[in-house]
Amino acid sequence: MKLISWNVNGIRAVERKGDLESFLKQHDPDIFFIQETKSKPEQIQPIIEKYDAYEQFYHSAEKPGYAGTAIWVKKDFKLQTSNCKLQIGMPNFTDDEGRISRISFDDKEMLGVYFPNGGKSPEAWKGKLEFYEKFLAFVNQLRAEGKTVIFTGDVNCAHEEIDLARPKNNEGKIGFHPEERAWLTKWIKDGWTDVWRERNPEVRDVYSWWHVITRSRATNVGWRIDYFFVDEKFLSQVKDVQYLTTQMGSDHCPILLDIS
């Protein structure tokens, strides 16, 4: 089963540039988790019709042109599963920005998440930390119910110094602040594994986001802020994990997880 997550920074834009089509032809995911769709379903009917090999589920933000997530599931794959359901949000959280999309089938729960940035105001920063806390409680509860949980997406935080090109310059800034980094540490202590870092503990200079205005992708001055996390007990079923760093179309690149 091939899972891919990608913050497309506007699904209509990445389609217009031709990068969505080339990506799907080359990588052909079974389940495709998308962040920052920035669209309402009625705005992307041509995309829905064009890529009809997938059942496409959109969780849009109430604010036009903002945030939003989606999950695309190969129709052939869905036919092979039992009780496949697509859901949104999490308990005790009003998800009016389309931040959490979730697919449930068999004993599995897979979540595609666009975590808050937190940089707009003190209230936004507080909301980001609260989101981390509520999300951890949510996935821990799903696991306690006997579910196999995988979550992915744009976490909007580089965990350790190795995860960004210029850690000293960004120390204490949002995206590399000790308080948010501490939450990622807590996830890992609770048994959730950052799959790519687990497989590549010493690898540097692999990132998933680059600042557009400074053209930092050309010099690979980036941040690793997009992840796949799995229950540590599930690691033996991971066949491959990689960042598709040559894929263009967004300020983020996709991340792929291949599981048995």
Would you kindly provide a written description of the structure presented here, covering whatever features stand out?
- There is one protein chain.
- The protein is an alpha+beta fold and 260 residues long.
- The protein has a single domain (2-259), classed as Deoxyribonuclease I, Chain A (4-Layer Sandwich), CATH 3.60.10.10.
- It has helices spanning 11-16, 19-27, 45-50, 75-79, 122-144, 167-170, 178-189, 195-199; strands at 2-7, 31-35, 54-59, 69-74, 85-88, 100-105, 108-114, 148-154, 192-194, 209-210, 222-223, 226-231, 238-243, 255-259.
- α5 packs parallel to α7.
- The longest helix is centred in the middle third of the chain and has 23 residues, at 122-144.
- It starts with a strand and ends with a strand.
- The model has no long low-confidence stretch (mean pLDDT 96).
